[in-house]
Structures are given as C-alpha cells and as structure tokens.
Specification:
Blueprint (H helix, E strand, L loop, with lengths): L12 E2 L3 E6 L2 E6 L4 E5 L1 H8 L7 H12 L3 H17 L3 E2 L3
Antiparallel strand pairs: 1-5, 2-3, 3-4
C-alpha cells in the first residue's frame, strides 16, 4: 500500500464508505468496502467526530488540548499519528 503523507494543515474527512457509532465514549468505525472495523478510545473518538473536511488537524489538536487541559504540543503528534493510521486504513480522505 502506498503511504500518503499527512500534515497538520490537512483537512481530512470521514470516508463516504464508513459508518460509525459512539458506544461509551468510543467510536466503532466500520469500513463498508472492506467489511472491517476499528474502535477508537475517547480521545480518538474526539478526533473522528471532527473530521469534516473543513477543519485542519492543527485546529483539532488545539481543541483536543483545550478539552483535556494539556499543551497542544502534546496533542499534535498524537492527532497526526492517528490521522495517518486512519488514512492508511482508508477510513478518511484528504482535502487540501
């Protein structure tokens, strides 16, 4: 699989072939094309719910930092890593 670079400036969107449900603050995401699913913890779910194609990952990292009362320097690499994983698993699409 070709690795695609993702940056904090990117504005990813949940892929149209996904569906999800929040259960106990955790998102369960189903890839309808592949028939696979993943589960995200509370902070991963925070990210997932904000992937609207209009909001930059940098802004989501700031919102996450504010919500959990931590420095954005802590959330930026985590947001970027999770978004990269979601992209590799074809769960999100990038809009520049």
């Amino acid at each position: 699989m070709k690795k695609v670079a993702i940056t904090l400036a990117d504005k990813p969107k949940q892929a149209s072939h996904t569906t999800f449900e929040i259960v106990d603050d955790q998102a369960v995401i189903i890839n309808l094309n592949a028939g696979t699913y993943i589960s995200l913890n509370e902070t991963g779910s925070f990210l997932w719910e904000r992937l609207d194609g209009h909001t930059a990952l940098a802004d989501i990292a700031v919102d996450l930092a504010e919500a959990y009362d931590v420095d954005p320097a802590i959330t930026r690499p985590d947001v970027l890593a999770l978004a990269g994983q979601l992209l590799e698993e074809d769960l999100i699409a990038l809009y520049h």
